[in-house]
Amino acid sequence: MWVEIICGLVIYILFRRFFYDDDDDSLQIETTDSNALFSVATRLEKLYDGKVYVGLRIPDADTGSRQTIDMVLISKGEAVVISVQNLSGLVSVDADGSWVSNGANNHRSDRHPDPVAEVKRQVAILESYLEQRGAALPEGYFSCKVVCPNPNFRAIRSDYFPPEVVTHEQWAQLKPEPKSLFSGWIKGAFRGGKKEMQEPIHQKLNFILTTAPTWDRLELKGNKYVLGEFLEFKGKHDDTQSLRNVKRSKVSRLIIQKTSMFGLAHSKLQVLYSPRDYRNDGSSASEWKEVTVRSSTEVLFQPQNSTKVRKFKLSSVVSMSLSA
Questions:
Q1: Residue 154 contacts residue 89 (beta carbons within 8 Å)
Q2: What CATH number has the domain spanning 32-210?
């Protein structure tokens, strides 16, 4: 009887491994913050009929490094730099503007540098970058917000939070109406500018931000996202050779289209990749290239704010986007 049970467990593990694509690293990686970013971005695009650029890495001339910006919303009525604070538990504002959070599941207090001051600094860096790329913006064109989307966020004395902060309660109540919470984001943004300039500026910003540096992006099964840096593929020599053209200088996007099964030992994936076109955003269907590789082929990826390189099986990946 015990032999049958053990054999059954072994078969179940093998079945899960090959058919359900369990990947220890992908299950252990903390994707919560990245998921929050994309959830906020998706809702903003629906609310304001605009374009949200997520995970920007804008060059900072003062420090010689790149500044990570969670997201930028560009619509015909608004231009906003947004910081997403995915904090849970009780959160208060200290006298110096820093935030103190007590997690919902522990009693330890964590201190976070003033998010409002940080996002205002990001606005200045972004404006400088846009100016260098030829976008002459009216004074005060960009505003900023700090969004707290976590449903477990609890503000201690919400009246202590600056007006730039959108608590979870406020976030949940947002409506796509002219008088909604965000309607005043760019109040006075066009001072000194003419109304007819707004549309050309809107188009110019979208073009620049489409080609701006970003973190690479992995979309995993289960609606999970990881921002970071793609390093390389690992696997059998013929598989890595088939994927040798998938590099950021040549490819902007990779999609796992489907799985072909020829027995457990011969599970294959169809991988589509889009040649990079620096003239516009995206490629037509006729430009997509296709290769077939083993499902055990791995993506080596270093998540944002992590020193550890993660391995993700291609079978657990939905798509990958690479920054130029």
A1: yes
A2: 3.40.1350
